[in-house]
């Protein structure tokens, strides 16, 4: 049998995506494939919310502009030297690699948590798109402090959007990715246009005037906490913690020819998490000068962070289209991924039905503006819960010889539930979540210590269990 036939057979067995076998050499992709994907994925719906939210935290110019520069660099380095390095070594999905170490039953728990968190994130993106669709209907926009739906128009628009997004996601990843690739350049150009128009509306003609938009910072808005330089650095580093230090993107980089493809994540970080965040913050800075926003601030209320009206005020109908597309391109693949996570738990259900279930959960979440309005907090929690599982893979890969433990122990010993993994995660999560709540420590500050402790405890517990 020729090499080509063998690979064809492997692909057929793996359902076309090599879920349970290493990706064959003929299917590897060059760095150019990842460049477009990351630039598109990280200039999306979330950026329209995160940029303005940075302004609500009273951040200064230096803290925002230099903090984002450093935090995003740390994220790129994490992808390059951890995720991509391990991905090209084994060429396995995150789920299959975890299963080999943790056992099938424990991975089921991970998949459930992952799927639910994906649904909540997709819900926030449906909220983002709804703020644009609601403009022609004069819909009341959700306020920064809103948690519940604010009217029947909001409910109808969110349900309609959720239904359309879920149906498209259920058509499969090809449909999702093709649509995203077409829309991404439009969204990136819209962010750039929004930023330029906003600078003009703010009367900015020099670097010093641009700097003075944030100046030395201010008091945070009602209900928000004050962000310093380190808040910006650490939060932007761990905004995608589940993807890089949490190893989710093993599933992406297993197709890379070389680990150096990990550098392409810089396109996502500096186009999406730098240019787009700052452009979105500028839109909000324009709105804050309006009589409506000033009136709210004088009453001690936080002005609305509604991406639709912000973009519409800057670039008109193109702004509405950009916000709808940005929310759509984020929600779609997110619902698709959530469906896959659920399908791993109930494999008898078809991809169509698990995706519809995930879409329904996301739509219900989208009805509650809190997921979008508290996106900084939610993204921090998301990374904090899932990232330590990545430490299990990283520490086993780099330190299994020094620790004297057997790699892929669940597979070798035919374990369904590796206690070493569970207790390492539970102790690190429980300890640092308690510290965050009890002593009011910013959650992103304890993500790295929780990740490191989980990895170390995994090695210690594995040594003990494997000796027994």
TrEMBL record:
Lineage top rank: taxon? Bacteria
Q: Where, if anywhere, are coiled coils annotated?
A: none
The UniProt transmembrane annotation reads: 61-82, 116-139, 151-170, 182-207, 227-246, 267-290, 310-331, 352-372, 378-399, 420-436, 442-461
Q: Does the keyword Cytoplasm apply?
A: no
| Keyword terms | Membrane, Transmembrane, Transmembrane helix
Does Transmembrane helix show up as a keyword for this record? Answer: yes
* Entries under InterPro entries matching the protein: CodB
* Protein name (Swiss-Prot/TrEMBL): Purine-cytosine permease-like protein
């Amino acid at each position: 049998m020729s090499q080509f036939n063998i690979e064809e057979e492997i692909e057929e067995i793996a359902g076309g995506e090599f879920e349970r076998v290493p990706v064959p050499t003929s299917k590897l992709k060059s760095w150019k494939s990842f460049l477009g994907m990351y630039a598109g994925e990280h200039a999306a719906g979330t950026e329209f919310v995160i940029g303005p939210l940075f302004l609500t935290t009273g951040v200064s110019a230096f803290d925002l502009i230099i903090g984002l520069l450093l935090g995003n660099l740390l994220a790129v380095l994490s992808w390059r030297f951890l995720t991509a390095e391990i991905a090209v070594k084994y060429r396995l999905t995150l789920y299959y690699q975890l299963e080999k170490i943790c056992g099938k039953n424990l991975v089921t728990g991970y998949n459930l948590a992952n799927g639910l968190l994906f649904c909540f994130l997709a819900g926030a993106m449906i909220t983002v798109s709804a703020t644009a669709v609601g403009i022609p209907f004069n819909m009341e926009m959700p306020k920064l402090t809103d948690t519940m739906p604010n009217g029947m128009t909001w409910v109808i628009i969110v349900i309609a959007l959720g239904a359309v997004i879920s149906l498209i996601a259920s058509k499969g990843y090809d449909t999702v990715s093709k649509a995203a690739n077409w829309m991404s350049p439009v969204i990136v150009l819209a962010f750039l246009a929004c930023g330029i128009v906003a600078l003009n509306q703010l009367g900015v003609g020099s670097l010093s005037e641009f700097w003075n938009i944030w100046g030395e910072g201010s008091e945070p808005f009602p209900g928000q906490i004050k962000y310093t330089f380190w808040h910006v650095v650490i939060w932007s580093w761990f905004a995608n913690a589940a993807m890089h230090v949490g190893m989710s993107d093993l599933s992406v980089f297993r197709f890379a020819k070389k680990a150096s493809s990990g550098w392409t994540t810089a396109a996502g970080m500096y186009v999406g998490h730098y240019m787009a965040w700052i452009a979105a913050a500028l839109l909000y800075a324009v709105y804050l000068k309006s009589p409506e926003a000033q009136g709210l601030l004088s009453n001690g209320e936080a002005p609305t962070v509604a991406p639709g009206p912000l973009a519409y005020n800057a670039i008109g109908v193109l702004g509405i289209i950009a916000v709808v597309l940005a929310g759509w391109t984020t929600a779609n693949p997110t619902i698709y991924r959530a469906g896959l996570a659920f399908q791993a738990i109930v494999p008898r259900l078809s991809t169509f039905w698990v995706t519809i279930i995930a879409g329904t959960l996301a739509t219900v979440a989208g009805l509650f503006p809190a997921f979008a309005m508290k996106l900084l907090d939610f993204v921090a929690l998301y990374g904090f819960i899932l990232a330590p599982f990545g430490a299990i893979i990283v520490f086993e890969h780099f330190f299994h010889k020094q620790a004297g433990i057997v790699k892929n122990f669940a597979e070798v010993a035919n374990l369904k539930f590796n206690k070493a993994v569970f207790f390492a995660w539970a102790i690190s999560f429980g300890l640092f979540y308690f510290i965050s709540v009890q002593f009011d420590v910013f959650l992103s500050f304890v993500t790295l210590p929780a990740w490191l402790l989980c990895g170390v405890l995994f090695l210690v517990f594995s040594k003990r269990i494997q000796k027994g």
